């Protein structure tokens, strides 16, 4: 080795043959010298191996990883098998149904907490807390030479060995169990949506093509019902109930549901049921541009649009009377109520679905039928 063969910080560069013969400790020392690193202190957390205190600390770390694994499995089991179907107050199973969302939150949160605490405890108890001083250089923008690559790998291997993770099979098994359970839960979240076939009954009200406004049989009357906050209170709407420029959220009502507490409350839980009933001011109604094929969907100054935003399904709950704009508060999409609710601002790209409405012989506002297109965000089968 010649005296000219030096690298950073005046360290002599070994030949390739000498480099290949070096063990990990020698490479670690050489790498530190090349990087201008001086190890001031590198204490072993457990200089005496196999003590009771060391084993107790290892078991404590493994306990948290095991808790995380069990919680992760509980999350997956609850996600799939917990009774999630809606149950009205007073019905059998209401208590378990009310615990569905809290159960998912608690088990997933405990999984993440267990992993985090386990990692922190292992770092505190077993990873050496080194104290080093290093002079840094960017090597004048040049790439790392082979010697730097080998020494950094040696440093990483040395850190792994000094952390003693290689000989702690209990910790490795428990962290693998916890990580696997969490991974299973993360996989289960999107997969769970495929457990129920959305096309099992493509003509039914629970399919993606239809909503709660679909008639159950020819000639059925589907009224527009005002939401009063009480599921058993039925208030049907007439045209004179809305002032010019007003908007009200309405839900479907059928006479067959009268007296059925479960059916009356369940309709409020359906995401596709809420509809915005808008009464335009007379001067604004004269400027309406109607969508092709939906020219007769309104009843005079009354227009009905789904509240499900066509972007990602948030509720388009805001109506600005002066500008006749419908606003979605989630991502600020705006729709023009005078131009078949087409988007004019924000990320939404499709108009809100319009419900065909009229007034029946009794003078109540009713739906003439279901939406003629799916409501809400896009999915791969829809053509609009």
Automatic annotation (TrEMBL):
MF-aspect GO terms: 2 iron, 2 sulfur cluster binding; metal ion binding; monooxygenase activity; oxidoreductase activity, acting on paired donors, with incorporation or reduction of molecular oxygen
Principal localisation: membrane
SUPFAM superfamilies in alphabetical order: ISP domain (SSF50022)
GO cellular component term, pick one: plasma membrane
Keyword Coiled coil: no
Pfam families: QcrA_N, Rieske
Keyword annotations from UniProtKB, A to Z: 2Fe-2S, Cell membrane, Disulfide bond, Electron transport, Iron, Iron-sulfur, Membrane, Metal-binding, Oxidoreductase, Respiratory chain, Transmembrane, Transmembrane helix, Transport
Function: Iron-sulfur subunit of the cytochrome bc1 complex, an essential component of the respiratory electron transport chain required for ATP synthesis. The bc1 complex catalyzes the oxidation of menaquinol and the reduction of cytochrome c in the respiratory chain. The bc1 complex operates through a Q-cycle mechanism that couples electron transfer to generation of the proton gradient that drives ATP synthesis.
Stated name of the protein: Cytochrome bc1 complex Rieske iron-sulfur subunit
Native organism: Amycolatopsis acidiphila
């Amino acid at each position: 080795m010649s005296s000219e063969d030096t690298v950073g910080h005046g360290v002599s560069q070994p030949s390739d043959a000498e480099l290949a013969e070096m063990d990990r400790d020698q490479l670690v020392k050489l790498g530190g010298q090349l990087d201008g690193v001086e190890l001031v202190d590198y204490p072993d957390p457990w200089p005496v191996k196999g003590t009771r205190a060391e084993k107790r600390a290892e078991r404590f770390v493994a306990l948290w990883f095991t808790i995380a694994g069990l919680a992760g499995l509980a999350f997956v089991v609850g996600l799939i098998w917990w009774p999630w179907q809606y149950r009205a107050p007073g019905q059998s199973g209401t208590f378990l149904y009310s615990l569905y969302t809290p159960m998912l939150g608690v088990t997933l949160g405990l999984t993440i907490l267990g992993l985090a605490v386990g990692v922190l405890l292992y770092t505190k108890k077993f990873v050496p807390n080194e104290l080093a001083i290093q002079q840094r250089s960017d090597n004048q923008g040049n790439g790392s030479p082979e010697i730097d690559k080998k020494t950094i790998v040696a440093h990483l291997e040395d850190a792994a060995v000094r952390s003693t993770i290689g000989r702690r099979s209990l910790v490795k098994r428990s962290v693998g169990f916890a990580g696997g359970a969490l991974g299973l839960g993360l996989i289960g979240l999107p997969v769970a949506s495929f457990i129920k076939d959305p096309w099992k009954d493509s003509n039914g009200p629970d399919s993606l093509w239809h909503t709660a406004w679909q008639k159950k049989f020819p000639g059925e009357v589907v009224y527009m019902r005002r939401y009063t906050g009480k599921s058993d209170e039925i208030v049907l709407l007439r045209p004179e109930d809305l002032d010019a420029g007003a908007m009200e959220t309405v839900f479907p009502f059928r006479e067959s549901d009268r007296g059925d507490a479960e059916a009356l409350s369940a309709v409020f839980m359906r995401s596709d049921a809420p509809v915005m009933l808008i009464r335009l001011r007379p001067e604004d109604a004269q400027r309406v541009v109607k969508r092709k094929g939906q020219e007769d969907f309104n009843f005079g100054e009354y227009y009905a649009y789904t509240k499900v935003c066509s972007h990602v399904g948030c509720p388009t709950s805001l109506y600005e009377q002066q500008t006749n704009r419908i606003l979605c508060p989630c991502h600020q999409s705006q729709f023009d109520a005078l131009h078949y609710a087409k988007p004019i601002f924000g990320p939404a790209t499709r108009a809100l679905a319009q419900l065909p409405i009229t007034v029946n012989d009794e003078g109540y506002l009713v739906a003439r039928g279901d939406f003629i297109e799916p409501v809400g965000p896009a999915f791969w089968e829809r053509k609009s």
